[in-house]
Write a structure and sequence with these properties.
Helix content is 18%, strand content 35%. By secondary structure, the chain is α+β, with helices and mostly antiparallel strands. Strand 1 and strand 2 form a beta hairpin.
Length: 126
């Protein structure tokens, strides 16, 4: 299972990668494996400012639909345009081409409450 050291994680299995003032958010390798084949990603929150742990969209797999939660508060700037035609990118490359949204973080201090790779590994192996 791939758990990159340079990312922060939530207990709900989202990851966040900070790049300057913005950050990219997606679901973890573990989450996509548990969901199975992803057939649709539904995100319609571009332009909205959401709080930490607020739902920014849903991901639909063959067997289930799951909410996508904001790891930190911020404004949703962009949705990954590739996911509309290729939702399976979330399964194939969850930390790269399968990213879901780009956000502008409201309060960088919220990043401190997230899990590092080691703590995330402990969570999923518990």
């Amino acid at each position: 299972m791939n758990i990159p050291e340079n990312l922060k994680y939530t207990k709900d299995h989202e990851w966040i990668r900070v790049e300057g003032d913005d950050a990219f958010v997606g679901i973890t390798d573990y989450a996509q494996g548990e969901l199975g084949d992803i057939v649709f990603v539904d995100i319609d929150t571009v332009g909205e400012t959401l709080e930490k742990e607020e739902t920014f969209g849903t991901v639909e797999a063959v067997k289930t639909v799951s909410d996508l939660m904001m790891p930190v508060g911020g404004e949703v700037l962009e949705i990954n345009p590739e996911l509309e035609e290729n939702p399976e990118l979330v399964n194939k490359d969850p930390y790269g081409a399968g990213w879901m949204v780009r956000i502008r973080i409201s309060d960088v201090a919220e990043l401190e409450s997230l899990l590092n790779a080691e703590k995330y590994k402990e969570l999923i192996n518990a």
